[in-house]
């Protein structure tokens, strides 16, 4: 498909165009965790979305080329953690390839269903995976919320223009 000439700087669809557009879209930041046979895994996600209130369900995207994917692909349960603006470094750690995500700098504990639960987050949930939907080089994971805690402190962490930011009033 070609763009009509009256649309100015419109470009054909490409991975670069999609990244450019979504750099302008502010998104909340979450960390998804799961327990694998070799220990805990996790990654930073900006694709977290509410799917259903009854039953309570959510979704997130995960790249099939990422180090966490094999564990997420096989796990029955995942942890979903909403990060606060005080957790920029934690978000960066879980986004960085090759990082020691569950090393000494990360405070966490074993939660229900063996899911790693991060400490000091504004909110967390343990969820049962109900579907993994193919979507290009990603999978959309749909999960039912089993339990959680939304009583943590902190304002939300956002991802915008390729950086982690706090919410401005």
TrEMBL record:
Residues 22-166 form the Flavin reductase like domain. Pfam families: Flavin_Reduct. It comes from Streptomyces toyocaensis. GO terms for biological process: pyrimidine nucleobase catabolic process. GO terms for molecular function: FMN binding; riboflavin reductase (NADPH) activity. It comes from the Bacteria. InterPro entries: Flavin_Rdtase-like_dom, NADH-dep_flavin_reductase, Split_barrel_FMN-bd. This is Flavin reductase. Gene3D superfamilies: Electron Transport, Fmn-binding Protein, Chain A. Keywords: Oxidoreductase.
